[in-house]
Amino acid sequence: MDLVSGLLILVILIFSAIFHEVAHGFVAEKLGDPTARLAGRLTLDPRKHIDPFMSILLPLLLIISGSPVIFGAAKPVPVDPFNLKEGRKDIALVSLAGPLTNVFIALIASFLIKIFTLSSGAFLQSGLFTPFIYWILTKIVQLNLLLAIFNLIPIPPLDGSKVFALILPEKEARVYLSLSSIGIFIIFFLLLFPIGGFSLGELIFNLLSFAEKLLGI
Questions:
Q1: Which of the following is catalytic: 21, 29, 170, 212?
Q2: Alpha carbons 9 and 72: distance in angstroms, whole number
């Protein structure tokens, strides 16, 4: 992959992650918690969201290394659960907002690809649909699906853990969510070292391939 392609992928990933985080804050406010807005995080301004390691360094290293799985994240939007009206249920809704936003973005981009493809003659003649635009839209689909799938993994602190916690008794849910401080190390370990034939990276890749096929990408 050349430098320009790598940088474009990084930009798409950063803004996809930003939309993900803004969605968390937006839904949290609708459910009674204005913390994200008061912190100035309900904005698409990258300066408010970029984390030097998770938003730039980590995905850049994955891109350069040719990793089949590329992911990153923006700074988590602050949410005060004590402001939410229905406790764990609202936390789960706030958590789902991010991945669902990424799925929505992927659906829009895939729809545009379908429109351009079905009308390829007219768009090609007008110069509106070029291989470059097709590549950009395809990467938007892939990266947003990847962010959605990755964040729905039920390992704290990922969004999927807050949803999974809903089916646990309150005491067990607290213990389970307390793994957030070491969860990122668990995730990296599972990505780097398959256990008993289970590979987290392979699972994510297979789910991504399945989702792409569903969207016809």
A1: 21
A2: 11
Phi, psi of 198 (to 5 degrees): -90, 125
Residue 21 annotated as catalytic: yes
The C-alpha atoms of residue 16 and residue 28 are separated, in whole angstroms, by: 19
Give the residue from 215, 195, 200, 210 showing the smallest Cα distance to 158: 200
Number of domains the chain is built from:
1
Model-level pTM?
0.91
pLDDT at 29: 97
Q: Do the domain assignments include residue 7? A: yes
Classify residue 127: in a domain, yes or no.
yes
Q: Which domain holds residue 141?
A: 3-152
- Residue where the block lists tokens 């470059």: 132
| pLDDT of res. 213 | 92
Q: Assess if residue 194 is contained within a domain.
A: no
Residue 9's pLDDT is what?
92
Residue ranges, the chain, pLDDT below 50: none
* Pairwise CA distance, residues 115 & 89, whole Å: 38
